[in-house]
Structures are given as structure tokens and as C-alpha cells.
């Protein structure tokens, strides 16, 4: 039985990855930090099958202990401060959790189990300002937020540990990926949650920032398979994972409202509060390398993704209205 340690297991990607690895027969260890109130919505259906280890990204001793206890064949470092907008008001916390923490995790692995395979959750936000379209592994980075800057550090320290210590360390440069488990502050889930509330008469407006930003949006359930594939190769490498399609925020909004027969223009209000100090205008990824080397394929299209998320949010509010226990998955 293979053993995997996942940081960020309570998040969107961590929960899908844990399910996927359990299905494959892995023993899954999940790092969780202390929270004042429980936040297990994404993993409540599998929480008894995960071996929980208490730890925090910024506490190296706890990470060393996590690697010692789990004795992993594979480590997936998904934990981070992952909300771009929060990285301006909290730039130092973001640097600690999204940049320095990667070194903490790499050190824990290097000290305790250097032969373990390591996956780092890098991001298309590293590309930032458009230098080349579509963006691929060789496109220069020009991050546009403290989050993007922190991810560039995480990417290069992963490459550096591979080259310095011969570790099997991979960096997956993943473009935006969404699902019904996406946090409510990210634009896709904010939209689908609002569409459900408006449709059910629980709300009457949705306040958004820049509707012109373009993103390459895929389904998280497809993307976690690419993470696993990267660690099954003969040699470690870095890969872009994307759909190869780009859509504006407005297109996402139109499809989401349209899927329940509503006209978005009647409900969406532009609010400066959600406009960022610096924006990433266009993301469009070229994942030819992943398709050719990993045999990775997408299963869920953009339109299917939007509709899946709206349907899930509608069901969530309908269940709550009927007094049923709300299922967040
Ligand atoms: P989420 O925000 O859903 O999950 C983040 C996870 O990190 C949560 O489990 C959170 O725990 C954990 N975490 C945060 N800080 C700490 C800490 N100090 N110690 C321990 N755990 C911590 O992110 P996603 O699942 O969407 O993304 C996973 C990773 O992939 C992130 O690194 C993100 O930056 C990156 N990424 C995401 C993309 C996307 O489109 N989703 C695209 C490219 C990269 P808690 O539940 O306690 O808050
Ligand atoms: P992003 O995702 O910053 O791309 O980072 P987010 O969904 O937050 O923003 C996408 C785009 O939508 C625009 N936007 C709004 N965004 C939010 N959150 N709220 C709004 O009201 C709103 N209005 C317009 C934004 O300006 C932006 O252009 C995600 C995260 O998962 C990162 O962790 C990951 O690394 C990248 O994707 C790839």
C-alpha cells in the first residue's frame, strides 16, 4: 500500500486528491491546522479514512513530525494562502504561507525522507502580466500580486531542491480550476452561489469587480489527476495544466445566470471594492507537454463546469430550505 501525505487536504484540491488516492488504495495522511471552528465540509464524507496529523505550514517542527509519522512515498504540498485578493492586505502572511512554507515542507522531506516524491502546487498567477500567449513551461514569469510573487518563490525553490539534492520534486503550474467545493470568495463560486440564492428568491443582487478578466478555467477533479501523474513518471519535471480555452468573467456570469433562465444584467452590480490593485488580464495555457508526457486529458468542459456548480449550489439551498442536512460536496 502506497502512503501519501497531503497538506491542504481540507481545501478544494486536497479533498479531491484524497478521494482519488483512497480510491487507488493509498493510505492517506492529511495535515490539518488548528481552527477555532470545524471546517471539514469538503472532506466530511471521507474524514474517517484519512489519517489526520496536526501541523502548520509555518511550524517546521510539526512538518518534520508529519513526515516522520506518515513515512510517505508521495508528498502533495497543496496548502497555502490561496486567495489572490487577500495577498495585498496580508502580504507577509501570504509570503510565509505560500512562499517560505514550501521550503519548510521541502526541508522536512529532505531531512526525514529525501527519496519521497514531492509535488508543489504552483500557479498560472506566476505568469501575471502577459509576456506570451498561450503560456507554457518556458514562458517568463511576471507576477502581479504578492500571492503570485510568493508562488514564483515556491516554484523555484522546488526546482532548486530537485537540482541541489537530486530530490524527485515536481512543480505543477496549474491554471484556475473550480468545482462545487471551491471557496465562496473565488469569483466562480461567488457567482454560482449568488445565482442559486437569486433564483430561490433569497437575494436580489451580485456585486462584482472586473468582468473583463480572462481565465482558463477547468474542473478541479480533472486537475488533481495530473498532480498524481507527475509523481508516477521516471523523472521529475514541471508541467502546465490547463484547458487551452479562455473566457471572461462576464461569460462565466452569463452562462451561470442563463442556466437557470435569468438575465445577469438585471442582478450584477459593478463594485470597485472587488477591483484589484493590479490585475492579471489574460490567462490561457498550453498543456501540450502534459498531454504528451503524462497522457493527461480533460473530461469536463467549461460549460459543464459552470452548470455543475450552479446545480450544486441550488441543491444546497433547496436542501437547507427543506430542513435537510446540507451536503457541501
Ligand atoms: P484552498 O484555499 O481551497 O485550500 C488551501 C488549503 O491550505 C486549506 O486546506 C487550508 O487549510 C490550508 N492551509 C492554509 N494555510 C495553512 C497553514 N498555515 N498550515 C496548514 N494548512 C494551511 O486552495 P485550493 O485547493 O484551491 O488550491 C490548492 C493549492 O493549489 C494552493 O496552494 C493554491 O494556491 C494552488 N493553486 C490553486 C489553483 C486553483 O485554481 N484552485 C490554481 C493554481 C494553484 P484550512 O482549511 O484550515 O484553511
Ligand atoms: P484568481 O481567482 O485570482 O484567478 O486566483 P478569483 O476567482 O479570485 O479571480 C478571478 C478573476 O475574477 C475577477 N473578479 C473577481 N474575483 C473575485 N474573487 N471576486 C469578485 O467579486 C470578482 N470580480 C471580478 C478577478 O479580478 C480575477 O481577474 C485563483 C486562485 O485559486 C489562486 O490560488 C490560483 O493560483 C489561481 O486561481 C490560478
UniProtKB/TrEMBL annotation:
One of its GO terms (molecular function) is GDP-mannose 4,6-dehydratase activity. Its EC number is 4.2.1.47. Residues 5-309 form the NAD(P)-binding domain. Belongs to the NAD(P)-dependent epimerase/dehydratase family. GDP-mannose 4,6-dehydratase subfamily. Catalyzes the conversion of GDP-D-mannose to GDP-4-dehydro-6-deoxy-D-mannose. The gene is gmd. This is GDP-mannose 4,6-dehydratase. It comes from Paenibacillus solisilvae. Its cofactor is NADP(+). It catalyses: GDP-alpha-D-mannose = GDP-4-dehydro-alpha-D-rhamnose + H2O. Keywords: Lyase, NADP. It comes from the Bacteria. HAMAP family: GDP_Man_dehydratase.
